[in-house]
What does this fold into?
Amino acid sequence: MEQKPSKILVADDDVLVRTTVSKVLEMFGHKVTTVPDGTDLIEIVDDSFDVIILDINMPGMDGFETIKVLNERNYEIPVLFLTGAGSMDYAVKAINLGAYDFLTKPIEDLDIFNVKVSRALEKRQYVLKERIYKLSLEDDIRGKARQLEEQNKLLRRYSHSLENATLQMMTSLQNAMEEKDYYTAGHTIRVTEYAVMLGLAMGLDEDDLVILRRAAQFHDIGKLVIDLSCIQKPGKLTDEEWALIRKHLVTGANIIQPLGFMEREHSIIRHHHEREDGKGYPDGLTSADLDQLTRILIVVDSYDAMTSRRNYRRNMSMDEAILELQRCAGTQFDPKTVEAFVVAVRNFQLPSGVTAHIEQ
It folds into this structure.
């Protein structure tokens, strides 16, 4: 394949110099375009030129002003400055402005002239090859990024499906447990609704609401491994039976622990029977150790327990349960959470289909 001749742009206000340089360049096989000054050069220059030969002293826009504009446009075309005798200081200034090299005029040594032009052309070819390489590399990176994004989308869909399947399985197990216990049936649903209600009232963001909902939904999942006869026993429980029931917190947290996407829920589930004064269980945490979501679950779980009938006691009315929450605010419950709950619950109605409290 025949190689295209190199395109060289020459700017000089002396017509004789332009003609001479043009003929010499054409003799070496280059295609030449000439202009009389920097302004005309700037008007026609584009990325198709391979080398620019530029006079310094020209009327209007001189060589220094011209190369500054070329630098701003970032053509990366090598510039060879033409300098007259006694103007070496100009040559130094030109190099500092980014000129590739300089040529003295009149042209006396054609070999040196040709060598300098050839080196400038080699520089231009290197620049063009580097551009192509960068573009190819950028295309390759973009392609790999798109491929990675598609893979990430698949992984996210798979992860989301796996999370949903896990949650559905856990929900089914918990529902099966509650269906066996008349007195705890609906407790989880109500606690979840109360928790979301209070979370919204306290201005939680969407991510925290999701975590709170999950923690409430599975806060008693540890009871799956507790003998239901102990839960359903008429009358008060013995110390040994209470110790057994209290294990459902640690057991529930252990069930959740392998699920990496429920790291925060794990902590909330473990600590939803802690107290502000540190007298709760299983870890005896105090108010400083309890985050907002855990405090919310502590309040709503206790409220539903108080307003739901057990086989060993009657259930409290709403007003009675609210008075108990307020009485224990600061010791068992966080005062601000209780205050927000009282306001919210008085205007709250459980959705249709949620098991209502059993009034006596």
Summary: The chain has 13 helices and five strands. The chain has a mean pLDDT of 85. Residues 110-179 form the longest helix (70 residues). The first strand starts at residue 7 and ends at 11.
